[in-house]
Amino acid sequence: MESVDLACLTGPGKVRASGVHARVEVVNVWASWCGPCRRESRRLQAAHRHVASGVLFLGVDVKDSAARARAFLAGRHLGYPQVSDPTGRFARALHLFGVPSTVVVDGTGRVRWRHDGELGAADVRQLLARVRAAGGDG
């Protein structure tokens, strides 16, 4: 998939998102109005703390306003970048059409695991196992 620069919601500038890196990526698509997204954000942060530094976690707010997204993020202290995808183009390129959705992408750009819907505790364990299988230390 082609690289795209998405506006960073948690810092200045843009984040280059490509879905293809020399590392494992965990991409979570969410929206500020999504109740399940609110609940799973704590679980994703906990998963992020358990993986190696070579694994990129990326939160992608889709079809939402930056102001609402920032309000959603306020006080959540997520330790990984959050970007805005107002048109949903990047999410569609990864075949993520609903929120929340999460994928593990390996260094070649291949989706190694996909979960549509809210991640529960068992789902986070599967996520971490897939990160390890894709080349992240998890």
CATH homologous superfamily grouping: Glutaredoxin
The coarse silhouette is globular
Structural class, please? alpha/beta
Indicate the multimeric state.
Answer: single chain
State the share of residues found in helices, binned by percent.
25-40%
In the residues, how many domains can be counted? 1
Q: Measured on Cα atoms, how large is the radius of gyration?
A: 13 Å
Describe the structure.
- This protein has helices spanning 35-49, 66-73, 89-93, 121-133; strands at 4-8, 14-17, 24-30, 55-62, 82-85, 101-105, 111-116.
- It has a single domain (4-133), classed as Glutaredoxin (3-Layer(aba) Sandwich), CATH 3.40.30.10.
- The longest helix is centred in the N-terminal third of the chain and has 15 residues, at 35-49.
- It is of the alpha/beta class and 138 residues long.
Give a quick set of tags describing it.
138 residues; alpha/beta; Glutaredoxin; 7-stranded mixed β-sheet; 4 helices; 7 strands; 30% helix
